[in-house]
Amino acid sequence: MSDNDRKSANLTRRGALLAGAAVTGALVIGFWMPRRAQAPLATPEGAVWADEEPETSEVNAWVVVDFDDTVTVRIAQTELGQGVWTSNAMMVAEELQCDWSKVRPQYASANRDAREMAPEWTLKVPGNGATDPSGGGEPQFGTRDRTGLAGIPDSLYRRMRTNAAASVKDGRYYLQLAGAEARERLLLAAAKTWGVPVEEVSSANSVIAHGSTGRTTTYGKVASLAAQTPHPNPEGIRIKPPSEWTLMGTEQKNLDVPSKVTGKAVYGIDVHMPGMKWAAVKSCPVYGGKVKSYDFEKIRSEPGVISAIQFPIPEPKLIRGRIFGGGVAVIADSWYQAKTAIEKMPIEWDIPPEYASLTTADLRAKLMASLDETGRVGVNVGDCDTAFRSGARIVEATYSVPYLPRARMEPGNATVLVTDDRVDIWLGDQSPQETRRSCAEITGIPEANVYLHMCHLGGGYGRNGNGPQAEQAIYIANLNRGTPIHLLWTREEDFINTTYRSIGVAKLRAALDRDGWPIAIEVRTATDSEAPGQNAGFDIAARYHAPNYRFSMHSAKFHIPVGTRRGVGAPAQHFYRESFMDELAHAAGKDPYQYRRELISRTDLPYKADMIKALDMAAEMSGWGTPLPEGTARAIALEERGGEEGHHATISAQVHTVSVSKDGKVRVERVDVAHDEGFGLVNPLSVKKQIEGQITWFYNDAIYQECNVKDGRIVENNFDAFPLSRMSENPPEINIRFFKSGHWLDGMGHDRGPAIQSAIADCVFQITKKRYRDLPLRNHDLTWT
Amino acid sequence: MAMDLTVNGVRHSVDVAPETPLLWVIRDTLKMTGTKFSCGIAQCGACTVHINGVAMRSCSVPVSAAAGKDVTTIEGLSPDGTHPVQLAWMELDVPQCGYCQSGMIMSVVAMLERHSNPTDADIDAEVTNACRCSTYHRIRQAIRVAAAKVSAGGGTL
């Protein structure tokens, strides 16, 4: 350290202390100014959440630079395996031009988010939408909304939800802006210290240099001064286009991996607080049901047992209208004591009689019947009725898929401490702004006094705000004010207290001309009326051209709560669509790759060149058309998301090489993936991992997983009846290749593998001559001779 | 009932009901949270620990059965995260959500102790833990890297 540096650092720290005193409580618009808050409670070792007390070296709300150049980047999404802990940090660090090896992610404070607003200048998305490489894209949740439900809030940390594969798509512009603003203020601080114009100062790797004099300092040394240095013209800050990226676009290992190989990563289940008690829960297994009676006296003297608390059906308005069951919790010194005791406690349920005898067959029959009703027409091009009368050949197929939960590995849990003026909650959560509201609504304590300490999630797969883990825990803790309560579900309770991907059926019909090309395609799908994503894969226009095309959505309302699950509507509807294309190609006697290629080329879809490129590349990678041994087959499928004119899209094609043994054992031998990278991927390593994982995730959907309904309740509720695939079934070879396209991507985290469903089903058909149209395939005889 | 339990070389006297699963003694009594609870019925393997060097699903082992034996958890695998399997896991960037990985790593370490140069069949037969994120593709590669590290003298299991 030079004398100059030492002097400026000392001055800076003293200046910061003085200035810090002066600005306490002030809300300065124009840059992200640190703000004082209550001191936090004791936190467990390894905690990854922010102190509520901003540090003097907080350059803006997203960036803290310590004296040793350690850069803390605030992460407003939740790490649940998708790599956001790293990719969000990369977007900030790219602009900050800091030393990546010294970047430390930390969860952003949902409490500060309740009290502080984002600066006005950060609210406008730079550039011209999804096809402008220099801009911020076109955020999916683009409209501003305080709750974060319908849009991106204009509160301090913007959209804190983690869903819709939108973390990069929606957050990139304001995270890049945050990094750029911090960098410019660090440069301003250095320039001020040296008394030189800021234009003469530059930075790289956390080192700031003055060109003509050769003086250098570091981010850490000027951070406290930068924290007090407003940017004179924040509206003029630009974000880097992909052509200027140096960190984004490179393969970076996830920053949380070291903590996940040593057992140190903190998940919600790991939270221990002094004086904490545990709650085990039994909820009514039939949704909409509640407790009629329970007999606590029978278990009062069991070891460790403290009390039992009945809770009502969680308030639907706090959980997006979903109706779960009421239940009862037993509080004990340890969770195992609570769980053992509640299993011994007699509980009688008050079950709605109209649901009490329902079965899967009843629900599926209602959906099938709905297909013959008018439905909601999504697309209607040409005149299908007339075209069907003139077709040389009619092909018709009916498909179905089951109810599916996410079945994350970490069972639902939350730790809550309610005192008379404050709520603290520790949990893994995909929607903290909603949970913050639940805390306030249930306890009557304002959101500004709710402190949400985010933990990593042991898997998410779409569970944003989709279950009452927090609401049950808050309710119970509110009746035990002063005592931290850690509520934890058993695996079986996790299956009860979750929303499901809706059961679904679809009827697809096509009229083919004499050469086997479709002149009309009609698609009818049916799900629970509240299922999200009902228009996936069939909306806007036919992906595979037919001059006459009609798509209608049908539904019935059931009592099983439905919600978003990885891929939302796409996995089921891609299974229907791609299976049907295989059937049409077979009926036409044409190669299914070339058949798809030709039909896409006949469309005027805006991204059809990317779709064709994906098909061509995947086919070439797989050795499409080369001979395979007996009992082995290949199938190809397109995966696409988004793709409206001028909007985001993610386009890929996969070829699966699948064998079926004569005794009916399916093995995916290899998968070849050709994948759109848009203008650029933030972290290509993370994207590869997402693709690899999702291939097997959807393999499970194809082969194993289903939840049935009997007596109004979900039958399969643990990993014995609801199997997860293991090492032995994973494809030994997965090849992934990327291609550039002219749009920003529409996300990567959730629908990058549904192709495996139609592919396995079609390979089974090619090998066994048996066509199965309902999943999972384990329900069928796959043997052949 | 008090009993002696040795975890990661440290002897503890724990006062719990003898039928309490080892998992909950490790997590709640000893406050070592690297070992995870997921299914509670010995299906998924998130709770895998070693008992006298054998990989066991601790959610289904009563603590009384582990008393007097050597229990090793993820926290005891290495003092600083440099066990060859941990290094290989970092090299391949294996974990996604990471929740199953403590148990997965413990299963792999036990498998490598029996098969220093495992075949695919060895891996398939002995690493039967579930990973919901389906990180299996990288797990298999990381097992190869770990085995190579050990055989090259880069560490001991």
Provide a brief overview of the structure.
The complex is a heterodimer of chains A (785) and B (157). Chain A is an alpha+beta fold.
List keywords for this structure.
heterodimer; A: 785 residues; alpha+beta; Aldehyde Oxidoreductase, domain 4; five-stranded mixed β-sheet; 17 helices; 28% helix; disordered N terminus; B: 157 residues; Ubiquitin-like (UB roll); DNA polymerase, domain 1
Give the helix proportion of chain A (percent range): 25-40%
| CATH fold topology of the largest domain in chain A | Aldehyde Oxidoreductase, domain 4
Compute the average pLDDT of chain A: 91
Beta-strand content of chain A: 15-25%
Strand order of the largest sheet of chain B: 2-1-5-3-4
What name goes with the CATH superfamily of the largest domain in chain B? Answer: Beta-grasp domain
Architecture of the largest domain in chain A, according to CATH?
2-Layer Sandwich
What is the gyration radius of chain A calculated from CA atoms? 28 Å
SS summary, helix count of chain A: 17
The total domain count of chain A is 3
**Spatial extent as radius of gyration of chain B:** 15 Å
What is the oligomer described by this structure? heterodimer
**Beta-strand content of chain B:** 5-15%
